[in-house]
Specification:
With 452 residues, this protein is α/β, with parallel strands linked by helices. The chain contains 8 helices and 37 strands. Bound molecules: uridine-diphosphate-N-acetylglucosamine and calcium ion (CA).
Length: 452
């Protein structure tokens, strides 16, 4: 069946109490609207149209893609008015599916079940607390109207079956029905839901299809609901990981805000956050409270607690942290050890090299089996430009040294503790740069002045 998808996303979302348009609030690391667009794509429609309004270009820019068209609803006059703005963009596809930009968890399978060629099909849900929603009014089991909470009488308010807002409509009839809508209701809006009686007059069947899982129909109207849906998504992700064989110390205390791909026997301790795309190969373990973003970790590597790793590739059998900071553009080969309070940026570190404590390595190429001592730093920035440091295989960089870039420490060279290296160190050489120690016997330390 040929299909248009229209995503209504023009509303402000007043109850979010935020300057940001509601549909751009983030759920599991991406905007609510991006979730809905992803699901729409899974249906392979002829056309996806996003109706935007509040927030203007920010909404459009956040989700712009070649396969998406945008219709501006400059003034938010209701859901019916919103759909009307999308009409000029639609193809003559048989069915037009209406989705909400603030109902992010709806599944493609549920939507497939809703698609019908010549009917109106409305996705409904049974709620214990239907307050605030449009109620599905049935007569002899058949849907005859949808009444908004603000327009409902006492008896209608008791109806527990609600309109999720998601509906499939016959495209050919839409233009006529939408032009007939009148804003004669408590909110003075053009209600899309008022097409129900119009369809019935035209002898088009209207059916209410109850969703099997209520959670996927839930909308975000407040920060409370956003937080609830976030927990829902995280719980699902955690369950999927557990089913794949990943060990999670506590499935309620891991957050995946993107895609986490795990090999066999991966284990993840509490409080970890994964952003963007993170790949953990076999036998990788991630300690408590680590943050990993766009990282590829090879097998057997251990990331110890409180480490922060962003846009980096980490080889096999490395040991990182605790308290390590690995910044963008870092490439660690296999068997590398990066210890506590070591920061690495835009650097390649060769097989078996170590920086175990308190070091900064930036814009550097470090060879194999290099030892970088405690407190060693590369001075990569001269106040205007960044320069590279090269440390070749088997070099030994003593503690508390400064390598003032651009500079090269050649193969097997040794830099003595406390040195400030401003010129290249040749292979096999020892470079020291410190004043000779002087010793003064019987030294009297200054004493405190007594207050008079
Ligand atoms: C709507 C439905 C209600 C349903 C509820 C489900 C109508 C009249 N009411 O009510 O039956 O139970 O959703 O959550 O359809 N939007 C626009 N332009 C507008 C108005 C809304 O794009 O002028 C978009 C919003 O961005 C949002 C969606 O439509 O994505 C729903 O808007 P909202 O104001 O939340 O609808 P409700 O009044 O809650
Ligand atoms: Ca409203």
């Amino acid at each position: 069946m040929s299909l248009n998808v229209v995503i209504l996303a023009a509303g402000q979302g007043k109850r979010m109490n935020s300057r940001q348009p509601k549909v751009l609030h983030s759920l599991a690391g991406k905007p609510l609207l991006a979730h809905v667009i992803g699901t729409a794509r899974a249906l392979s429609p002829a056309k996806i149209v996003v109706v935007f309004g509040y927030g203007g270009e920010t909404v459009r820019n956040a989700v712009a893609a070649p396969d998406i068209e945008f219709a501006l609803q400059a003034e938010q006059k209701g859901t019916g008015h919103a759909l009307q703005q999308a009409l000029p963009h639609l193809t003559p596809a048989e069915t037009t599916l209406v989705l909400y930009g603030d109902v992010p968890l709806i599944r493609a399978d549920t939507l497939r079940g809703l698609l019908a060629a010549k009917e109106v099909r409305i996705l409904t849900a049974m709620l214990d607390d239907p307050k605030g929603y449009g109620r599905i009014v049935r007569k002899n089991k058949k849907v005859c109207a949808i009444v908004e909470d603000k327009d409902a009488n006492a008896a209608q308010k008791k109806i527990r079956e609600i309109n999720t807002g998601i509906m499939a409509l016959p495209t050919a009839r839409l233009a006529r029905w939408l032009t007939k809508l009148k804003p004669q209701n408590a909110q003075r809006e053009y209600y899309l839901t008022d097409i129900v009686p119009l369809a019935l007059v035209d002898h088009v069947a209207v059916s209410g299809v109850p969703a099997t899982d209520v959670w996927e129909t839930l909308g975000v109207n407040s920060k409370v609901q956003l937080a609830q849906l976030e927990r829902q998504v995280q719980q699902q992700t955690a369950n999927q990981l557990l089913e794949q064989g990943v060990t999670l110390a506590d499935p309620a205390r891991v957050d995946v805000r993107g895609e986490l791909v795990c090999g066999r026997d991966v284990s993840i301790d509490i409080g970890c956050i994964f952003e963007g795309k993170v790949v953990l190969a076999d036998d990788v373990s991630v300690g408590a409270h680590c943050v990993l973003k766009n990282v590829d970790v090879q097998s057997g590597t251990r990331i110890e607690p409180y480490s922060h790793v962003v846009e980096a590739t980490i080889g096999a059998n490395c040991r990182i942290g605790p308290y390590a900071r690995i910044r963008p553009g870092t490439k660690l080969a296999d068997d590398v050890h990066i210890g506590n309070f070591v920061e690495i940026k835009a650097s390649d570190i060769g097989v078996g090299s170590k920086a175990s404590h308190l070091a900064y390595i930036g814009d550097s190429s470090v060879g194999r089996n290099v030892n970088v001592g405690a407190g060693a730093i590369t001075c990569n920035y001269d106040g205007a430009n960044k320069h590279r440091t090269v440390i070749e295989d088997d070099a030994f960089i003593g503690s508390d040294t400064q390598l003032v870039a651009p500079v090269t420490v050649h193969r097997g060279a040794t830099v003595g503790a406390g040195a400030t290296i401003t010129r290249d160190v040749a292979a096999g050489e020892l470079a020291i740069s410190r004043a000779k120690q002087i010793s003064i016997p019987g030294w009297k330390r200054p004493t405190k002045n007594m207050k008079k």
